[in-house]
Every structure is written in structure tokens, then in C-alpha cells.
Amino acid sequence: MRISRIYNNNVALAQTFSGEQMVVIGRGLAFGKRRGDLVDPTLVEQTFVPEAGTPDEKLSWSLAEIPSQILGVATDLESLVKSEGITISHSFIMPLADHLNYAVVRAREGIVVDYPLAVEVAQLYPQEVRFGRRALELVRERLGVNLPANEAIPLAMHLVNSQFATEDMSGTYRMTEIFSQIFGVISTGFGQPVDQSSMSAARFVTHLRYLFVRAAKGVDSEAEPSVPLLLETLKTAHPQAFACARKVLLILEIHLEQQLTDDELTYLTIHIARLAKDQYGSSSRVS
């Protein structure tokens, strides 16, 4: 591959002989080089493909500002995520590296940041929080910097965000707040707290996450339950789950700013009934 653009001595944009562009990272790989020179493959430590449509100015500024060691950590974390079968967008590396860079700067300057949704994130996204903690370990191993334990929370949210291929982190945090509110409704409805680390809660969260994606894209529910027959059956068999589902549906309609169908009410009732059965032993228990 040949160098298309040099960002610093350790980072360059290169083009393969098949025409694909990628960022190459490695100590001294661009030192003394010019545009058009061949990249020494023995010096390449990490590579990543930038997100299609990323403006050159934005990419150039980011790559010039972020140390190559941190870019290397971010690319290794991407490889870790993909090795676990998690599908993420190409835009994962740069926001992650940018966050890591400023987290390292803050840690060295003794600046502490509070993350108000830490409890909710830890309960709703246990897999992603484990990734965040692994990221902290890798930073400590590679850079010798001990980041605060709560930095695992925003790192986890970067992974959540990337799974939906969106650039807007505020939407991901808003979604988390809504999920916490929904579990609050279920806890109140059944008179007991919900164990959000349980498998049934995880399945419910997965359904809700993809509901947000479908709603954003204007796509209807993925399947066609027997409505209204199934819904009427659920209403009779699981009255508390149905009552909770109606409240959850209203919350979702308010936040998504769109009307949801009886299909979605059916899915919500099924998930809440399963969750209640797993956690309370009955989906119709009187609180």
C-alpha cells in the first residue's frame, strides 16, 4: 500500500493496491516519508478503515490530536469486540479513541467526572460495562495510566451507541433513562424491584433497544402476532403484565413521539409476563 496522507510520524492514511483506504498506525512508519511512498508493512502495528463519508478535515484533526498509542488501544478494543461476535459500525474507533484520550488527560490532571446514569447503565448493559472495564485494564497495561473505575460507564455507552450505528450519544443516554423509567413502572406494578441483570431483563432490554431502532427508521414490528385474539388472551391470563405493558407503551409513545400498535402492546405484555414469571414466580401476582 502507498501513503495518501501523513498525520504524524506514527499515523498515516494509506491506499491499498485494490483502492481501499485505511489508516495505518505504527512507530515511525511515516517518518521521512512522502505522499505516494510505500508503507513498510513490518512497521504497521494496527489498521482501521475510517467511516465512509467522514470529512477529511474531521478525520485529519482527530488523527493529528490523538496519540498513536491511544489509537492503537482503540483498534485493539475494536478487535476484541468483533471477536466476541458483536456487530459495530466503522465509526466506533474514532469516538472511542477521542474519549480515551481526554480521559487520560483528565486522569493526569486529577480531574474527576461524575456519570449520573452509572447504576442504570451497569444494570441495563452488563456486557458493555465488562467491555468498559477491559478497556480500563488495557489503558493501564499499555499507557501506565489508572483511569477511574467509573470511566467504564461512558466507554460502555460508546459500545451501545456503535451497535446502532449512530453518531448521537445523547440519544443513547436518553434511551437508557427511558429503560430505567420502564423498569420502575414494572417494579411498582408488581411491588418488587426488578433484577435488571437477569436473562429475562436482558431479553426485554434487547427488544426495547431494537424497538427504538425500528421506530427511528419507521419500520413496524418484526412479526405478526394474532391480534386481537392473542392480546385478549394475554390480558386475561396476565392482567398485571398487561397493565404494566399499557403504561410502558404510553411512555414509549411519549418519548418516541409516535403511536405504537397493538402488536407492540402484545410483545411488551409477553416480555413483562416472562420477566415476572422468572423473577416473582407469577406474572399475575397482586402487589
From TrEMBL:
UniProt keyword annotation of Repeat present: yes
Gene3D superfamilies, alphabetized: CAT RNA-binding domain, PRD domain
Residues annotated as domain PRD: 65-169, 170-282
Pfam family, one: PRD
Keyword Disulfide bond appears in the UniProt entry: no
Keyword tags: Repeat
Domain of life: Bacteria
Protein name in the entry: PRD domain-containing protein
